[in-house]
What does this fold into?
Amino acid sequence: MVVDKGKAIEEILTDLKSSSSDILGAAVVSMDGLLIASYLPIKDINPEGVGAMSAALLGLSKKAAEALILGDFKETYIKSKEGTIHLYTISTAGVLAVLARRDANIGMVNLESRQAAKKIEEILGG
It folds into this structure.
């Protein structure tokens, strides 16, 4: 049976969004910023822009971890006035970017997102 990887990943992203009202949307992005799949039902959010920004943040985070001799980069998040963006590495395949509300329960966002990242890594063969 041939499985459409894109559809399977989109289903995981939809389930991730459904798992918590704190999660606004999510995208899976390749290391070079290409959008692999997304579920971003947010007005005025450009999925390709999320991809490009996620790849840029991933690159900077990897360089910081390396320069500070902290080992392989795994995840990061940025908190702003209106919300947060969380990045989780998916082996060498890319990154899971998750957008959350400003008052989100970060522990739950991390728990649900890490589980989703593992499932996506299995699909992408990472």
In short: The beta strands are 23-30, 35-39, 75-79, 83-90, 94-101. The helical segments are 5-19, 47-67, 106-124. The chain has one domain: 5-124. The chain is about 45% helix and 25% strand.
